[in-house]
Structure formats: structure tokens, C-alpha cells
Amino acid sequence: MEEKVYKLMKNSGGLTLALGIVSIVVGVTTGVFLIITGAKLISGKKDLMF
To answer: Is 47 a residue whose pLDDT tops 90?
Structure first.
């Protein structure tokens, strides 16, 4: 019985670690895209006339 619990804990720990890594990668990628988009908007600001 205890082996099942340890196996379940090992699998859930691995899944949690994988999801954490995926969320970090998605966050960094989103941040880079937002910075690039903001830089393009700021550089195009000089072409706007109100």
C-alpha cells in the first residue's frame, strides 16, 4: 500500500515540476513579446499627429 502512495507522490511531483517549467517559459515568452510590441509602438509614436 505504501508503495502506491510513494509512486503517486513521485508522479505528481514530476507533473508539478513540468507544469512549473512550462508556466515560466510561457511567462518569459509573453513578456518578451510585450516588450517588443511596446518598443514598436514607442518608435512609431513620432508618425502620429493629433
So the answer is: no
